Fold this protein.
Amino acid sequence: MKSVNYTNLNRLQTLISSLVMGCNYTSDINDKLIPDTVATSLLGMDHFPAQSQINRFLTNFSEPNIDQLEYIHHSLFMENALSLW
């Protein structure tokens, strides 16, 4: 059995990439992201984590983790929103 260790950063990168690539469900990760070797190399990974790893990662999210993601989203939105200019 193959064993690959991914960091939480890798899992977050996969989650964000899945949103950018238009994945409606985490199950889409296996079909849309895993085959994309260019994106993985840009992020410094050999492969994206599978959908099952992302589901386990999301299951372990706590309230402070969600607050952190909301803060990151808001900060990136404020830095990059065209309508603010």
In short: Residues 8-84 form one domain. The two ends are 52 Å apart (CA to CA). The CA atoms of residues 7 and 49 lie 10 Å apart.
